[in-house]
Design brief:
The protein has two domains: about 90 residues, RNA Polymerase Alpha Subunit, Chain A, domain 2, CATH 2.170.120; about 80 residues, YbbR-like domain (RNA Polymerase Alpha Subunit, Chain A, domain 2, Beta Complex). The protein contains four helices and 14 strands. The relative contact order is 0.14. With about 210 residues, it is of the alpha+beta class. The model has no long low-confidence stretch (mean pLDDT about 85). Strands 2, 5, 8, 10, 11 and 13 form a six-stranded mixed β-sheet that branches.
């Protein structure tokens, strides 16, 4: 029995080795040298904008980019390896429509950009102003009736941001004051709620609040 197995294995041995080598080379060619495609979500960044201007609105902050290239490169691509930048060095206040061109996309060497969707982005550019806003302390609902606000500081902050947005408001709230409160008095540093504001800088960005137990 063993003789039959050995005879079968070694029969046309060179031909079998050659077949194995060719099969391996074919697999490598398909896996590592073949062309393929992939789509990736890429964040759009604005660059070279004047210090006295700010992007007040961007129609879309991410686009889908279809890439074409060797499988060996594509399979290792991460979101951070691909980027899209818009040169805003010549813009002024107003509304702009930028075509998404392939040359704007940064990709690893050996990769081609096949398609960008959407292929344009709408930007609104606004002038920057500085304004002092009054601070308003907001207490988390579960503490209302148990604690009251004794004091807070500062009572106003300096904000630098979109003139169009800041001209519509005179105050800014804190995020809801929360914590593991037990004492008669509690002191807590609370961030200001800036999520709906188009700002470049706010100083200070936290408020010290003193709560008193009712």
């Amino acid at each position: 029995m063993m003789n039959l197995i050995t005879k079968y294995i070694f029969k046309d041995f060179k031909l079998k080795v050659l077949s194995l080598v060719l099969a391996s080379m074919l697999w490598l060619a398909v896996s590592y040298m073949g062309e393929s495609k992939m789509s990736i979500s890429v964040r759009v960044s604005a660059e070279n904008l004047s210090r006295d201007l700010i992007v007040s609105k961007m129609g879309t902050e991410e686009v889908f980019v279809t890439l074409n290239g060797p499988v060996s490169i594509l399979k290792n691509i991460r979101a951070r390896d691909v980027g899209i930048s818009l040169d805003l060095s010549k813009v002024k206040e107003g509304r702009y429509v930028y075509d998404m061109q392939r040359k704007n996309v940064r990709v690893p060497k050996g990769i081609q950009v096949e398609e960008i969707k959407p292929d344009y982005v709408v930007l609104e550019i606004d002038g920057i102003i500085e304004k002092r806003l009054k601070t308003v302390v907001k207490l988390e609902n579960k503490w209302m009736g148990m604690y009251s606000i004794k004091s807070w500081a500062p009572h106003d902050v300096n904000v630098e941001g979109s003139g169009d947005a800041l001209n519509k408001i005179d105050s800014i709230q804190t995020v809801p004051v929360d914590g593991s409160f037990m004492s008669e008095e509690e002191t807590v540093d609370v961030p200001l709620d800036t999520k709906d504001l188009i700002i470049r800088r706010i100083k200070p960005d936290t408020i010290r609040v003193i709560l008193r137990k009712n």
